[in-house]
Amino acid sequence: MTDPADLEFSPDVMRAMGEAVLARAVAHVASAASQPACGRVDALDEYRAMRAPAPEQPAALEPLLAQLFDRWIPQSFTTISPGYLAYIPGGGLFPAALADLIADTANRFTGIWLAAPALVQLEANVLDWFRDWMQFPETTRGLLTTGGSMANFNAIVAARERQLGPDIRRGVLYASNQVHHSVLKSAKLAGIMPDRVRPIPVDEAFRMRTAELADAVARDRAAGLTPFMVVSTAGTTNTGAVDPLDAIADFCADERLWHHVDGAYGAFFHACPELRPLLAGLPRADSLTLDPHKGLFLPYGTGALLVRDGAALRAAHEADAPYLPPMPDASEFYDPSQHGPELSRGFPGLRVWLCVQLLGAARLRAAIAEKRALAVEAARRIAAIPGIVLDAPPQLSLFAFHLTWPGASPDAENAATRSLLARVTARGRVMLTGCTAAGRFLGRVCVLSFRTRHAQIDACVQDLAEESAAILREAAHPH
Q1: In angstroms, rounded to a whole number, what is the distance separating the alpha carbons of residues 82 and 431?
Q2: For the CA atoms of 406, 412, 414, 417, what is the dihedral angle to 10 degrees?
């Protein structure tokens, strides 16, 4: 008779379950190129019908896998597609899935050093790799997070503690008006209210204007407030713009401000020595957000933060309790719980560690550099399509454009550009998304999936050329 309190599976059952999942997962990845770049996401009645209470009795695995892989997973953006050129593509390197299987089945506690010192050291190694690739000093400490949003939050907390202490209300944070919304959200969560966040205008290339930054800081000092932090961006989400990091670093040094760089999209291009001039000044930051699930092709849920003065990160987060074991020597050993807000956590470092071990840093750098080269090629070819204007050439691997024709009004251009993206995406070979910047709706191409190669660039250019020509014909001969 089955023991209702026994939740264990036998080795044979576990093996069979694992093989069934692996077969589905491998088939799914193998078919990535043939899947539409954007699945159907508008079946509202079906989604409402999915609502159901928890089952009282166990279900068989195979029907559940069939529902997931055959019905529900296809109803999403196909982020693993080589034609996914939308938003900022994530990666999904296969070894990371193996790492998650190991991490979840071993289920070791990596929140504190003493509970799993060897495993925590693997994560410390990963952070040291990032430190070296970004050319940060040995004083750097960091934190692996679920993404750029949590990295930005922890950076703001560290800066707030170091620069303001308990006098939070007078503190002012500065960022360009193109900054990622997570910075504004993180500031509020860290106690820096919206009226203490200054949006700084940008130039024609969508980069922060340093003269306007200086004026804003001067005004706030004169008003008795305390400027404490500038957030610049190494690759904005809208247009891929890289703020003048060197000039901002100079200004922050002179004004004694904390300089944080949000490099969630673009920082990993700095891992390629030949591309470092594109991000000049990045290693001078006080803190840096990275997203391995973007620029290092890892699965979603893999972010990171580096802080030049690791003591500042630790000071903002360290805590003790009578039930916790003694902490290691902070000068030598890394303890995740003392550098971030979480005690219980997953083991994200294993994902990165295993992928780098199996692929090697050289291959990863080659893939990163290829994405930049592909984007430059795509921008050159797309700019040559009649009617398309390049609003933001690729500073890294993202560029923005719009569709126009003689006599077109701004509203007509916006509508035509939206239609162009929708029609190209509907073809199924590539998925494109847009944004609003400087009052205009722009189409975007972001090349960052490790699966995107020359064939997808060819498809993108062809589909944009054919659909833009059709829209221009319709504009010239309206019904």
Answers
A1: 10
A2: -70
pLDDT tens digits, 244-282: 999 999 999 999 999 999 999 999 999 999 999 999 999
d(CA 208, CA 232): 8
3-class SS of residue 142:
strand
Task: Return the structure tokens found at 39.
Answer: 């699945």
The answer regarding whether domain 363-476 maps to CATH 3.90.1150.170 reads yes
Q: Which two tokens stand for residue 398?
A: 């993202």
Q: Is the pTM of this model over 0.85?
A: yes
> What kind of architecture, by CATH, is found in domain 100-362?
3-Layer(aba) Sandwich (3.40)
Q: Return the biggest CA–CA distance within the chain.
A: 80
Angstrom distance (rounded) from CA 180 to CA 200: 13
Cα(175)–Cα(191) distance, integer angstroms: 16
Strand partners, 307: 141, 287
pLDDT digits 0-9 by tens, 94-123:
999 999 999 999 999 999 999 999 999 999
Domain locations in the chain as residue ranges? 12-78, 100-362, 363-476
Residue 437 one-letter amino acid: A
Starting at the earlier edge strand, list the strands of the sheet with 433-437: 388-392, 398-403, 440-446, 433-437
Taking Cα atoms as reference points, which of 65, 74, 64 lies closest to residue 43? 74
